[in-house]
Design brief:
It contains 12 helices and 22 strands. It is of the alpha/beta class. It has a 9-stranded mixed sheet, with helices on both faces. A 5-stranded mixed sheet has the order 17-16-15-18-21, with helices on both faces.
């Protein structure tokens, strides 16, 4: 458990944001109490938990601070004052007096009235000055809901701080909201963003298209408190391999025009842009595709040694990537859908292993490699690409049923099949 958010003894953790602050605080407390003494407090207001038969709560009041003797396997809750079943805010003075008694202190540091977004007051969040980690919770389940006081805490203040004239809550609203950095105002120590309620691949796609537009330097996790799932997010670079010679095709197959008048390569790039990525790389040769790469926002890498085989394109893509995973996509995959790409990336997030698509028991591209294979990738030689690594390393199979997306275009004969497939897409 201490590995979660890299929590260690001595940490003082302030929790901000909306969509699960109290739940996360008590979840962490229940786990941490097995490894040391735990205190819960608030610098805002929280409901006082009910005493039940199996609860392991010990309530502490100001007059008891001088005679404290914390117990293992219990959650200690500081009550400066209780009004209307709510525990009122704890002063920094009392937190200073309490901190030497406990191995872990968890503090709820702002309120949101159980809504996903909020307008921030000047004094929010109220983060204790000796906080070592601040965890901001983001709940994106308000996406596509109406902008009003039912979905946004202090709606008028929110409108003044994040003006967007649209009446529906959109991704851009979340991006602006998080990039404003109000979660961490006046914070010290490490900052962490946790996207809660990401419980299926559909919600992961929404999260993915938000997270890759953030400029926050914070560590980012996603998952679900309810499902006890916490995943450290790892950014991905798609690397499109387009420096081959199409020898069996007898002409440049990547420039062959489809019925929509986009070339095979352009259609591949176009489909990738349906998802947001922090960086995208296209490896080509003879500067053939530099203009096309700019059109779709790819960083273009010219392969002056394409004659050395596909492996050298993989090497160049790896050397020019800056993120935590490399998704190698052949340039002749015009039917590859965003749903397939996101499924591969989602599996990578969950397992942090090489992810290989399979159709009817057969390996396919694209393949996603974690950054720890950097040295293996840059030392590849010949025309085998990453297949040499797959022969000696374990990987996760990602199964698909639609073989059309993985169709290989290698010869002129394949064009006839392509025409049939285009009718089916």
């Amino acid at each position: 458990m201490p590995e979660l958010f890299n929590i260690k003894k001595g940490d003082i953790i302030s929790i901000t944001g909306a969509g699960g602050k109290t739940s996360l605080m008590f979840y962490l407390a229940n786990k941490l109490k097995k490894t040391g003494t735990v205190l819960i407090a608030t610098t805002t207001k929280i409901f006082k938990p009910e005493i039940k038969e199996n609860n392991s709560f010990i309530f502490i009041y100001p007059e008891e601070i001088g005679s404290l003797s914390p117990q293992d396997n219990f959650i200690h809750i500081f009550c400066s004052k209780v009004e209307n079943d709510k525990i009122c805010d704890t002063s920094f003075y009392d937190l200073n007096r309490l901190r030497d008694y406990f191995d872990y202190i968890l503090i709820e540091a702002d309120g949101s009235s159980n809504k996903s977004l909020k307008g921030w007051r000047e004094n929010e969040p109220r983060i204790y000055t000796l906080t070592t980690k601040t965890i901001a919770i983001v709940d994106i389940t308000a996406l596509n809901k109406e902008k009003n006081e039912h979905n946004i805490h202090r709606f008028e203040l929110f409108q003044n701080q994040y003006f967007n004239s649209n009446k529906i809550i959109e991704k851009i609203d979340y991006i602006e909201y998080i990039n404003s950095n109000n979660f961490f105002k006046n914070s010290l120590g490490e900052t962490i963003i946790f996207f809660n309620k990401i419980e299926n691949i559909e919600m992961f796609e929404e999260f993915f298209n938000i997270v890759n537009n953030l400029n926050s330097p914070s560590k980012i996790y996603f998952g679900s408190i309810f499902e006890e799932k916490f995943v450290l997010y790892k950014s991905i670079t798609p690397v499109v391999l387009a420096s081959g010679f199409s020898k069996r095709f007898l002409e440049n197959k990547l420039s062959f025009k489809l019925k929509n008048n986009r070339s095979i390569l352009e259609e591949t790039l176009f489909n990738i842009t349906h998802l947001s990525f922090k960086e995208k790389i296209l490896v080509g040769r003879d500067n053939l595709y530099e203009a096309l790469s700019k059109k779709y926002g790819f960083k273009y890498i010219n392969n002056d040694s394409a004659h050395l085989g596909q492996s050298y394109s993989v090497v160049l893509g790896t050397l020019n990537s800056t993120l935590q995973g490399y998704l190698f996509i052949p340039g002749d995959m015009p039917f590859l859908s965003k749903q397939t790409i996101i499924k591969i990336i989602y599996n990578f997030q969950l397992y942090d292993e090489i992810i290989v698509p399979f159709v009817n028991g057969h390996k396919k591209a694209p393949v996603l490699f974690p950054q720890r294979y950097f040295e293996d990738l840059i030392n590849l030689k010949g025309d085998s690409g990453g297949r040499e690594i797959l022969k000696k390393e374990s990987f996760i199979k990602c199964n698909f049923e639609n073989s059309l997306e993985f169709f290989d275009i290698d010869t002129q004969e394949d064009l006839k099949k392509l025409e049939i497939l285009e009718e089916q897409i």
